[in-house]
Each structure stands twice: as structure tokens, then as C-alpha cells.
Amino acid sequence: MTTSRFGEAPEAQFYRSARVYVSNSVWWFDTREGVQFGPFICKIAASCALAVYVAQHVHENASTRMLSTQIAGSQDRIAHMIEEVVEVIRQHQDFGQLAATNWAKWRLEELRRKATATSETVGRIRVLEFTLRHPEQTFSFDHFLRFRAR
Fold this sequence. Notes:
Blueprint: E1 20-23, E2 26-30, E3 36-40, H1 43-60, H2 79-95, H3 97-112, H4 119-133, H5 135-139, H6 141-145
Helix pairs in contact: 1-2, 1-4, 2-3, 2-4, 3-4
């Protein structure tokens, strides 16, 4: 599969493999820097953690202008999840953890009230639930890095 990543020039084409994968009955994800994170008990948890990881990078680099025709996470089909996490992180930065938690709860209620549950909506719900269960990973990148495979 050949696609350009967020921040890469479209002509920079490389072979891409799945970033979320199973090995020995547990789930992992790889970063583009070659670091493994895991293990996770299921694919959903690994995908949510990957969305948090990418969202933290997107948020950190928000002031840096990146030229790209591709949205972060689109190659992994998690761009919508990253969007939700970036907003939670913004709320945390601007107003604190309580505000971020309240915003995530409000957003969850809003998504659950939708008449149609698409796969995108379900992904948004799952990643928001993940951020509420794991605030230490969402708000502290140093804590998140402890989940690296050794």
C-alpha cells in the first residue's frame, strides 16, 4: 500500500503496513519512528491508544504549519478519533482536567443521542470513553510513553 503520511510530500511514497496488529493474542501499534506500544487486550484499545498518541503530536505541532494534502490519521482510518482527542487535549490545556472531562462527557452524550450510529460515530464514542478511562495517558505524554514495548 502506498500513501503519503501527514506532513510528507505527496511524491514521497513508501510501502506502508498496518500500524495496529496482533501478536501472541495481544494487540500492539507501531509509530512511524519505529517504536512499539502495547500490549493491549483488544484492537479497539490499541486503535484508541494510537489515536491518543497521534492527537498528542498533532496538538504539540499545531503552531507548526505542516503542508500536506492528507489529514493526520487518515491512512489508519482514525482521523475522526484523533479529532475528538485533540479537542479534549485543547480543553485540558485551556481550562484544566475537570473541564476536559466534562467536555468529553457532554460530547459522549451528544454522540449517543444521534439517530444513526455510523462506524465513525462509534469510533468517536470509543475514543472518548478511552480518554475518560485513561486520563493519565491522554494528558501526560510522559506517562503514555511508559507503554512502550521494551
